[in-house]
Design goal:
- GO terms for molecular function: carbohydrate binding; mannosyl-oligosaccharide 1,3-1,6-alpha-mannosidase activity; metal ion binding.
- Its cofactor is Zn(2+).
- Catalyzes the first committed step in the biosynthesis of complex N-glycans. It controls conversion of high mannose to complex N-glycans; the final hydrolytic step in the N-glycan maturation pathway.
- It is found in: Golgi apparatus membrane.
- This protein is α+β, with helices and mostly antiparallel strands.
- Among the domains are: 104 residues, no CATH class; 295 residues, 7-stranded beta/alpha barrel (Alpha-Beta Barrel), CATH 3.20.110.
- The strands form 11 sheets. Strands 23, 24, 30, 31, 32, 33, 35, 36, 38, 39, 42 and 46 form a 12-stranded mixed β-sheet that branches. Strands 25, 26, 27, 28, 29, 34, 37, 40 and 41 form a 9-stranded antiparallel β-sheet that branches. Strands 4-14-10-11-9-8 form a 6-stranded mixed β-sheet.
- A hairpin with a 3-residue loop joins strand 30 and strand 31.
- Helix 1 packs antiparallel against helix 2, helix 11 crosses helix 12 and helix 14 packs antiparallel against helix 15.
- The radius of gyration is 32 Å and the shape is globular.
């Protein structure tokens, strides 16, 4: 009786909605001013409109009759079977062929406070240097500058330092890549461990010696095998200031392809290790080898309480301009910061490289003579054919004068009389002999300079922070503060070119297989972190903390460090996971939603039975769309099927579903499949219970639709042609094209790093037309186009909310039979975007880009870790990516992404090999078309819907099949850890268990990282299906987690090394838009 009542109520609700829809339709006809005419004055066009309206009403009536009929059928069915779907009836096809879903019965609400929209309307930060303006200003003409080829002649007057001597800080360093030409372990065993052993011995020989180190992954490996005496000696050198840890991340992270979650995670892992083992806190950032620099990095270092940073790989024309204007040191400010709260003091190295020939001054031929590892007899020499000479009493005066001349010339490029001179290169100082060669010879030079006042110089070994502190002192400001008259800069430094037109824009896409795997593993790691932290807290509350396996924490630590290693600039810069077919004789499926908002989505799993039935935890039967699993373009599997169902999942929670083989499952609905085949006589055979229709390809476009979207496809190519939103009468041209780039025929060719195309892209072509598969069903519809080197699937989900408002695009690539080819996907639209487009930086912020005629094609490709978009006054089209790739807009209305690259040669940047290890790779995207209601903003932000679309793409639902326990009782119940909803504009970046300082187990504390998103409210969203509001940045942590008490709430620096006084547990925290904050919690 109760069951029937529920069905009746639910059916009544659907009926009410249907009647209300009729009312709204009539209301529009009667009250629309555009339709109102005086009596006897109805033009034929208006009569035609009314006839169309009547036809629509008749169609809607027919649909509602069908709804009522289905409600009745469902009641009869459910009375017989004892099961009930959440809505009480099956999906069905309406008169126009579209699928109608059961009414979900759950109201949604979204409330964005007007004040929370003001941030995106604000002004751009006040800066002296904006990088887009700098690009507009420069000619990029590459004039020969003499000994400094990419610069200019530097002159000075000998008496310029009479009043204030030049202070020279020589900073010895060794750049150690954790995996490049050799593996991490091979590098460690062959070279890096010897560098650490030499540090311990050689720095102790003279207290004037200094050294810096950055990669904690190597440091941790050495520490684990070092004896207590070596550890103590190393600790003493750090505490005395002879050895400085710079940046202190697990690696020197890439800054183009990496997501900000991973940037932060590897920084925390390095800093946590330092805190536990050495008790030191890095104060300066050091990034000499990432191939271009992101504006995200200074923000993260600033929030980690560092005061200064150094960068190296910047376009040579920008370096020249900054050197000419003495702007190589600047305050780097975020574009949204209208004050100075994000300012980071940054030093840009002026010359070609970070090796010794390019760091003492403008003339590499002279500087190489002061790299004493290259003394005659060494395996390395100077390419300029003038070797170094050991410093003796006989030549020290002459040698010191020559070196000082370079120091002075370099110092003319800066605003202070303090000079930084790095002294090192890749894997340097691995032999004791080099330590003696460098330190003894330089000390003789320093002693001579310092003992001759007429030279007006003071030279010494130093750490990086020694140098920065001297700059601050010389300018009379505290560390991290802006020195007087130093410029403020906003923007980033992509794309990087080191010489001529050699742009390092190829590595944005190189090895996309691994870029995809990296992003999947990041999502899994984040999910594991959150669930582990919650599990430990609940175990602690239940008094079971001692029984919770500590070994799991070690696994979590290993995962953090392995993913951290992959963020290194030679790793991530380099498929879909294999699906597991589950034997659903009688199994439970646990779904984890790693997103902080409740989620309504379509979940697809592979099953080995066509008679699968899906029940919720409380026994309600869900509609299932059964589809074929295809083994080729025209052959389906007879053993594996796709089962898709709609699931509502709690925020950051687990939901349990029961899957079993049912002889009679009326809730399982088969997909309708049509194969569009070129006229070549292929035999098509469907397999029971999934019949297949076929037709010969024709040129007429065809369409698929959902409750939110209608997509048009080319009848010839099977590729997307148009998008129409259901709330918009206008069909927007969005045409997908595939193209190929070759590489230039000259000596310099494209390789792993460089993109050097042989001209504009050429259309991809193949002899035979593609086989196109059209699949339609109640939960999704898709079009799959099979080409020789790729297979593209465009799917739309027929569900309300975020999952149903964008296109899900998967492109499966296999270019292993190609030579020197790069495959690109181009979107061609009618959007009047002009020469401007937008890309994200590390998934954290949006950076405007501009097409410049004066730059070569390859200069216009930028990293796309998460999204890129074009827009005009009416529309914004955003392409979201689940893996970092290179993107551009080479003409108005276009977006283009490089999908894969196969290159047969090295590009002479040190790798020594081409890109020939391609794999079959799945590149996954989402495509969202939004209407704009306002334009002309100086700074651009994604909409709330846009943020969520990116989130659901990068944090897919995780499906965990488990066996049932004890007589079919599920092993767990639904787990909804949040007591309420987070504000719509809050992203829970991580909930990370903090390590214990004395064991390998977790401490009682958890790190909560929150990011408040910057929103553009000027886009007209369809109903995104959210159940949340914005709160002007306010959030109460004490009531956030269901069943857990908050015992500590303490604000921390980003990487947990610096703390502020604890807040009262019932305090509300406040976040400004775009800010990331870290809190130490104790939950129990």
């Amino acid at each position: 009786m109760k069951l029937k009542k529920q069905v009746t109520v639910c059916g009544g609700a659907i009926f009410c909605v249907a009647v209300f829809s009729l009312y709204l339709m009539l209301d529009r006809v009667q009250h629309d001013p555009a339709r109102r005419q005086s009596a006897g004055n109805f033009p034929r066009s208006q009569i035609s409109v009314l006839q169309n309206r009547i036809e629509q009403l008749e169609q809607l009536l027919e649909e509602n009759h069908q709804i009522i009929s289905h409600i009745k059928d469902s009641v009869l069915e459910l009375t017989d079977t004892g099961a009930i779907s959440p809505s009480g009836h099956l999906p069905f096809r309406s008169a126009n062929g579209s699928w109608v879903l059961p009414f979900d019965g759950r109201p949604t609400f979204l409330s964005v406070q007007p004040l929370d929209c003001q941030f995106a309307l604000g002004h751009r930060s006040q800066t002296d240097l904006q990088m887009l303006d700098v690009y507009s200003l420069l000619s990029f003409d590459n004039v020969d500058g003499g000994v400094w080829k990419q610069g200019f002649e530097i002159t000075y007057e000998p008496n310029e330092w009479d009043d204030e001597p030049l202070q020279v800080f020589v900073v010895p360093h060794s750049h150690n890549d954790p995996g490049w030409i050799k593996t991490f372990d091979k590098y460690y065993n062959d070279q890096t461990q010897h560098i650490f052993n030499n540090i311990v011995v050689k720095l102790a020989e003279d207290p004037r010696r200094k050294f810096i180190w950055s990669e904690i992954s190597f440091f941790a490996k050495w520490w684990e095998s070092a004896d207590v005496h070596k550890q103590e000696a190393m600790r003493k050198l750090i505490l005395s200031g002879q050895l400085e840890i710079v940046t202190g991340g697990w690696v020197m992270t890439d800054e183009a392809n990496v997501h900000y979650f991973a940037m932060i995670d590897q920084l925390i892992e390095g800093h946590q290790w330092l805190e536990k083992n050495l008790g030191v806190t890095p104060r300066s950032g050091w990034a000499v080898d990432p191939f271009g620099h992101s504006a995200t990095m200074p923000y993260l270092l600033k929030r980690a309480n560092m005061s200064s940073m150094l960068i190296q790989r910047v376009h040579y024309s920008i370096k020249k301009h900054f050197a000419a204007t003495r702007s190589l040191e600047f305050m780097w400010r975020q574009t949204w910061d209208i004050e100075s709260g994000t300012d980071m003091f940054c030093h840009m190295m002026p010359f070609y490289s970070y090796d010794v020939p390019h760091t003492c001054g403008p003339d590499p031929k002279i500087c190489c003579q002061f790299d004493f590892k290259r003394l005659p007899g060494s395996r390395v020499n100077c390419p300029w054919k003038v070797p170094p000479r050991a410093i003796t009493d006989a030549n020290v005066a002459e040698r010191a004068g020559v070196l000082l001349d370079q120091y002075r010339k370099k110092s003319k490029l800066f605003r202070s009389r303090v000079l930084l001179v790095p002294l090192g290169d890749d894997f340097r100082y691995d032999k004791p002999l080099e330590w003696d060669q460098q330190y003894f010879n330089y000390q003789k030079l320093f002693d001579y300079m310092n003992s001759h006042p007429e030279m007006h110089v003071k030279a010494q070994f130093a750490t990086l922070t020694d140098y920065f502190n001297a700059v601050y002192k010389a300018n009379g400001v505290a560390p991290g503060m802006r020195p007087p008259d130093y410029p403020v800069l906003s923007g980033d430094f992509f794309a990087y070119a080191d010489r001529e037109d050699h742009y390092w824009s190829g590595y944005y896409t190189s090895r996309p297989f691994y870029k995809n795997v990296d992003r999947v593993l990041e999502s899994h790691l984040r999910g594991a972190e959150i669930l582990y932290s919650l599990a430990v807290a609940h175990a602690r509350r239940a008094g079971l903390e001692g029984r919770y396996p500590v070994s799991d924490y070690s696994l979590l630590t290993d995962a953090r460090r392995n993913i951290g290693l992959f963020q290194h600039h030679d790793a991530i810069t380099g498929t879909a996971k294999e699906a597991v077919v589950i034997d659903y004789g009688n199994r439970y499926l646990v779904l984890f939603n790693p997103v902080e908002q409740e989620r309504l989505c379509v979940v697809t799993v592979l099953v080995n039975s066509a008679r699968v039935r899906v029940l919720t935890e409380d026994g309600q039967t869900l509609p299932v769309q059964l589809s074929a699993q295809w083994v080729s373009a025209v052959e389906m599997s007879g053993e594996v099927y796709q089962a898709s169902f709609m699931a509502r999942l709690p925020a950051l929670g687990l939901a349990v579903f029961h899957l079993y083989d049912s002889a009679d499952s009326p809730m399982t609905l088969r997909s309708d499949t049509l194969l569009r085949i070129p006229g070549r006589g292929q035999s098509i055979r469907g397999l029971d219970p999934l019949p297949v229709r076929s037709q010969t390809v024709d040129a007429q476009p065809f369409y698929i639709q959902s409750q939110s979207l209608t997509l048009g496809f080319s009848g010839t190519t099977g590729l997307l042609e148009s998008i129409r939103r259901k709330d918009d009468p206008q069909e927007v041209r969005v045409q997908i094209q595939f193209l190929t780039y070759g590489t230039r025929p000259s000596k310099d060719k494209s390789g792993a790093y460089l993109f050097l195309p042989d001209g504009n892209a050429k259309p991809y072509s193949q002899r035979e037309a593609p086989v196109v598969r059209v699949v339609e069903g109640p939960l999704f519809a898709e079009v799959v186009a099979h080409y020789q080197h790729f297979q593209q699937t465009v799917r739309i989900h027929n569900v309300p909310g975020v999952d149903g408002l964008s296109l899900d695009i998967t492109t499966m690539l296999d270019i292993r039979d190609q030579n020197n080819k790069e495959l690109a996907m181009r979107l061609v639209t009618d959007i009047q975007s002009g020469d401007t487009f937008y890309t994200d930086l590390n998934g954290f912020q949006i950076q405007p880009r501009r097409y410049f005629q004066k730059l070569p094609l390859q200069a216009h490709f930028y990293p796309m870790p998460a999204m890129a978009y074009i827009q005009d006054s009416q529309y914004r089209l955003t392409l979201y990516t689940a893996q970092a790739l290179g993107v551009s807009s080479l003409a108005s209305g276009q977006l283009e992404v490089i999908l894969d690259r196969r290159l047969m040669q090295d590009d002479n940047r040190g790798l020594g090999q081409g890109l020939k290890d391609n794999k079959r790779t799945a590149n996954r995207f989402r495509l969202l078309l939004e209407r704009r209601s306002s334009s002309g903003k100086v700074i651009s932000f994604p909409s709330l819907l846009s943020h969520m679309t990116s989130t659901i793409l990068n944090h897919e639902v995780l499906a965990l099949p488990v066996l049932p326990w004890k007589h079919g009782v599920p092993p767990m119940r639904t787990f909804a850890p949040l007591a309420g909803t987070l504000p719509c504009d809050f992203h829970l970046l991580n909930l990370r268990s903090i390590q214990s300082l004395d064991t390998h187990s977790p401490s009682p504390y958890t790190a909560l990282l929150l990011h408040r998103l910057g929103l553009d409210c000027g886009l007209e969203d369809q109903n995104p299906g959210f159940n949340c509001t914005t709160t002007q940045g306010q959030l109460s942590i004490s009531g956030l987690f269901r069943g857990l008490d908050l015992q500590l709430l303490q604000p921390m620096s980003l990487s947990l090394m610096h703390s502020q006084p604890p807040l009262s547990n019932d305090s509300s925290i406040n976040l400004e838009p775009m800010e990331i904050s870290t809190y130490k919690l104790k939950l129990c």
